[in-house]
Amino acid sequence: MRTRSSSNLVGESSPNPTTSNPKRRNRRRSKQPFSLEESPVDTMADQRTMAELLRAPTEGYAEAIVVPPILAEHFELKHSLINMMTSDQFFGLEKDNPHDHIRWFNKITSIIKYKDVPNLAIKLMLFPFSLAGAALHWLEKEPPHSILTWEDLVSKFINELFPPSRTTNLRNEISNFQQRFDESFHEAWDRYKNLLRACPHHGFTELHQLDTFYNSLNSADQDSLNSAAGGNLLERCTQDVLMIIENKSKVRNSRNKSNISQVKSSDVNSSSSSEIAKLTHAVNQFLMDLPSDTSSNY
């Protein structure tokens, strides 16, 4: 019986020194000194002290509104213009309407004229002075150089301070408008126009507006409009319907004024008649109380 030689046993059992011994595979590394990696910014600013580097930055204060170049020499905003803007500032309160503020601002700035100065530049320069409170805080939060035109400024201003919920509420008020029980025709028409004015982006056509208002009136005012139209008001074109409504509102106002004057006149007349009657009664009573011989002398 043949046996394995010792050499064979040793050869089979001896492991490969390069693969079987993990301790030999992980060689010992030399320790490297710890150092901070410098960014390009740190490298450029390495001449400054730590106190200087930790100071608050002074950049990033650029205005959101970009005013176009002005060719006029020695141009500056007068204090009177700035005072005009600050006299009626928009605060952005819940009751404030940004549409009304834009109308007012356009009206004021439309009359300001400077040679070689575009009206757009005047608007963009003056508008921040017309804001205060929450409205001014909104403008200060806008990114620098993000407003380049007047149209862009108006769009961002309206969208920020006239939220969609407000638009929805006003649209519902317009659609569901009804003349009140104690409300005259001209009062209802004025209130309806104020609602339309408060939400100029309501989206309702002129046809829809006039039809809504006509159907909101009581039967007496509807009959009056039909009579003025010579038939059914809704069979007339929108321009005619609007003119008839406006004319009726003006006539109603004048009649109310004349009625008030007549009432005041009648009150004066009745008051005078009452005073005359009282005086006549007093004189008659005086004559009746006189002695008979005295009365015969008269």
TrEMBL record:
<keyword id="KW-0695">RNA-directed DNA polymerase</keyword>
<dbReference type="GO" id="GO:0003964">
    <property type="term" value="F:RNA-directed DNA polymerase activity"/>
</dbReference>
<dbReference type="InterPro" id="IPR005162">
    <property type="entry name" value="Retrotrans_gag_dom"/>
</dbReference>
<keyword id="KW-0548">Nucleotidyltransferase</keyword>
<feature type="domain" description="Retrotransposon gag">
    <location>
        <begin position="126"/>
        <end position="218"/>
    </location>
</feature>
<feature type="compositionally biased region" description="Basic residues">
    <location>
        <begin position="22"/>
        <end position="31"/>
    </location>
</feature>
<dbReference type="Pfam" id="PF03732">
    <property type="entry name" value="Retrotrans_gag"/>
</dbReference>
<keyword id="KW-0808">Transferase</keyword>
<feature type="compositionally biased region" description="Polar residues">
    <location>
        <begin position="1"/>
        <end position="14"/>
    </location>
</feature>
<feature type="region of interest" description="Disordered">
    <location>
        <begin position="1"/>
        <end position="43"/>
    </location>
</feature>
<protein>
    <submittedName>
        <fullName>Reverse transcriptase domain-containing protein</fullName>
    </submittedName>
</protein>
